[in-house]
Amino acid sequence: MQPSRRSFTLSLTGAVLGSTIIPQLAAQAQDGPSTPATPFRPSYPSRHSAFESIFLNNLGHAYHNGCDVGKVLYLASQIQDGDFEGAYLAFKQAGDEARAIAKNSSGRGHKESARQAYLWAQNFYSQSTYFLDNSKDPSRFLATWEMLYECWLLSLPLFDPPIEPVKIPYENTQLFGFFMRAPGEAAARRPLLILANGSDGSLLGMWLNGGAGGVARGYNCLTFDGPGQGHALWKQKLYFRPDWEKVITPVVDYALTRPEVDPKRIAIQGISQGGYWVPRAVAFEKRIAAAIADPGALDVSAAWLRSLPKPMLDLLTAGRKAEFDRRLAKSLDPAAKAALSFRMRPYGFGSYYDVFKATTEYRLSPDIVARITCPMLITDPANESFFPGQPRRLFDLLKSPKALMEFPESSGADLHCEPRGAGLRDLRIFDWLDETLGR
After folding, report:
1. Which end of the chain has fewer CB atoms < 10 Å from its terminal CB, N or C?
2. 45 band by pLDDT with thresholds 50, 70 and 90
């Protein structure tokens, strides 16, 4: 099996047990579940699929000032394919440089210049973390995350209007969120778009993948770090949970305390694994008027399980934890162990068996999908490798008003979460949302 265009360290498909990372296990899996992969066509700065995806994401981030294209192309020319340590250091240095630029501009009173440079710094720090688990010293992850989070906080008052840090009551603690107000009269009641992240995105990603496009169109936006994400993961030790309605309901409760939120026009968007979180949440939370899953995801566990050979699947099904852990640890090479460590972290488990077993709870049954009543948009980009085929299956199961939004390769917005097509993605998604909410 050839690697897909998006299967790599960041990809659940490749990073967990993909044939490109664990060939010795994939060779045993001929009788086990398999998923067709699209051909890998090395047409970008890197021939290494992991590095290619990082560069593609960075180029897309330039649309909303997340970086400068020239700097990304320079980094691509300097980093050697497969050199995770060198890639981390290069992106980390780019972040340091951008942060220094931001501080210099801020000190001289250049507010907008400082804001943009802080965005660049966050982007480069964030991208550097994807190389860390396979670097010489993965323990640098927390310190690097703290730098990108600091730059995010420093950028907030530089937006116009400023982005407001908020605290959302959640069970016996609170989630840290951020309210993005549209330009214009502060007290004006507007539609709200809640932005739900995926398995590994940053807060900057929520600005770039919905926030910037939303406020430009007159939406207020609200994002947050939920269990297993960002601050909740690193500082609060809160981990993923499959029943995401228990997360979104407190977020809606909080939103309804704000006078500038129109309670009849609350929408939600989930990207990447958020394409599972959102339909799960709106199946139970009925105060949301419209939902977007980019892409639609029915079964998170499919990406984890499909490359397991049948003997390993049998051990998992039989509950033979010690043997499953022992055999998998013996089969993993260092690169695969690093990739799996990255993917396991937000689930909060140290055992391979425990995390693989836990992913089987992240499934949308037909009964759950049938509970969804609000209008729903499902994106289905060509060459989707995280959840191939799942957007269409989710769309077919929906009984509520629905739309399937395809992004063909010819649009330049194919691949998981449309990394190269930020402008087209914004245009099509917000046109649908405007029409659905009657704007």
Report:
1. C
2. low
